[in-house]
Amino acid sequence: MSDPVVERIQRDPKYQQLTRTRNRFGWTLTILMLIVYYGYIGLIAFDKELLAKPLGAGVTTLGIPIGLGVIVFTVLITGLYVRRANTEFDAMTREILKDATK
Length: 102
What we know:
The chain contains 4 helices and no strands.
């Protein structure tokens, strides 16, 4: 038992374009996040001296702002994905559903 509407949607070139675009964008952000996160972990593992350098005369080291940068980067790419999903991807989905239910 297969639903003809589902089959129509799956054959729709707009749907195929949506899934390709969304998957490519998701994987790109995932790879960027992995590079940033594992780059930071790599610095911790292989260059502790760099991260231990103090900033100014205080006790804060270079590792603290870099670690905060990793967190901020995560929030930014999440926001980027949500923004694109809520605008471009949702609009494409509505258009595909409208065409499929005609």
